[in-house]
Amino acid sequence: MKIALAQLNYHIGNFDENIRKMTEAAQRASAMGAELVVFAELAVSGYPPRDFLEFDDFIQRCDSAARQLADACPDMGIIVGSPVKNTSGHGKPLYNAALFLYRHKITAFHKTLLPNYDVFDEYRYFEPGNTFEILHFKGVKIALTICEDLWNIGNDPLYNLNPMDELMKEKPALMVNIAASPFNYNQPHDRREVLRSNVLKYKLPLIYVNHVGAHTELLFDGGSMAFNADGFVQQSLAFFVEDLQLTDMAQLQHGQGSQADIQHIPEKIALIHDALVMGIRNYFDKLGFTKAILGLSGGIDSAVTMVLAAEALGAQNVFGLLMPSQFSSDHSVADALALARNLGAPEALVPIRDMFDAVEHSMKPLFQDLPFGLTEENIQARLRGLVLMAMTNKFGYILLNTSNKSEAAVGYGTLYGDMNGGLSVLGDLYKTEVFALAAYINREKEIIPLNTITKPPSAELRPGQKDSDSLPEYAILDELLFQYIEKRKGPAELVALGFDAGLVKRVLRLVNTNEYKRYQTPPILRVSPKAFGMGRRMPIVARYLS
Length: 546
Prior knowledge:
Layout: E1 2-7, H1 15-31, E2 36-38, H2 56-72, E3 77-85, E4 94-102, E5 105-110, E6 135-137, E7 140-146, H3 163-167, E8 174-178, H4 187-202, E9 206-209, E10 212-215, E11 218-221, E12 225-227, E13 233-236, E14 243-248, H5 249-253, H6 268-287, E15 292-295, H7 300-313, E16 318-322, H8 330-343, E17 347-349, H9 353-367, H10 374-395, E18 398-401, H11 405-410, E19 423-424, H12 431-441, H13 450-454, H14 474-485, H15 491-496, H16 501-513, H17 515-518
Parallel strand pairs: 1-2, 2-3, 7-8, 8-9, 15-16, 15-18, 16-17, 18-19
Antiparallel strand pairs: 1-14, 3-4, 4-5, 6-7, 9-12, 10-11, 12-13
Helix pairs in contact: 1-2, 6-7, 6-12, 7-8, 7-12, 9-10
């Protein structure tokens, strides 16, 4: 039996388009000789549908769409994910289901393990499945599972139950797992090893189909694959793009074919680059926008953001606005203009000195003779934010935020100023990672001016200002932040790792007292295992660690 792995980019709630894509893919798979086509978890609705699941009309549309797919391809076996109603009268109103469609009949298999950590919140909506049935198709017994159902493996399982242990009682010949596995730069490796562990434990081949595409902050890298019975990846689908490929059940089952993985996983920075470009492109496409704007300062953050946006949307659709003040250096303006020229992107210059002088004059009766300080720095950032938002309103741009994770962590950003935006592109990259991404962008030719990369980072909000005036070197700061945020190390553990006790106390206090700012930031494209936003939920008014 030939089986097609269909890795598609779905749009949440866009039932007509989702079904059109799946119908077309199923028909292509049939023409290629496939008898069974496998789509991803909750593909009918798009993932994650979140509180749309609380609308009866949304669930009815899911049911109708699944029926439409079944009727459009009656002679093709189809496995596809969709929410379905729980009619038992007990528990949550829905199941997360894998539907099997064949000859106009629809059979549902329910997801058992519902993740409720990091970015996942499935137990909010779904009842866990408690029946374990084998799918019979063309004489093959298939153990059909959904994403997390295969992740309860290893020495420290998260759940008391392992669905595959139950399904093995029926002696299946093949495992199929449909998934919605979000991207982070560790996930492609981790995912492959978890799936391989299942293959080796149960001595069965495995077909795995993931989502590809972006839904605001959640990015899906694809990377669908088929393992043969010896635990090697025999079929590998592309990362970050739609793909449809065929695999042969007999070869998988008997361990024929390659005895080495054919899946190539790119290096970390290459993965991040491709993920961010996809994230920007899908955010605009799925909202129906085409043009972006950003504040172009001559610094590395705005430069990297502009390059990524130009790759995603086309350079002609990315507008760089330079807004120098009396504190901006000539080389910063020159670097910003050079970047725009290198890309072929439109740019304009709107100095803010006169605006700043007007605000300063208007506030003088209240500020009197108080010295220049943080307030005046923030006024500059807010004036730039005002100009950028005026441009978005007048011309229909989406404003891209250029702040990085290091700044967001310690509160080095101005609310209603440089923290404005519809989407935060670099908000999950530490400053050192931004530098690495700049080097990757320039790997073949100089796109980002070299001076932008080599000059000391500065906000240029007062004479001679450098980031290192008030922060430790980014190599030290970023490692401390990584250990605290991603690794959840407390103060004593951080000191034991070699960080200065005074620095630990100061940085952790900055992180925790600026939580209120992060609650007001644009959605952040998630590329790390612990991003600010939906996957990191901290109280604002707590005293712990502050």
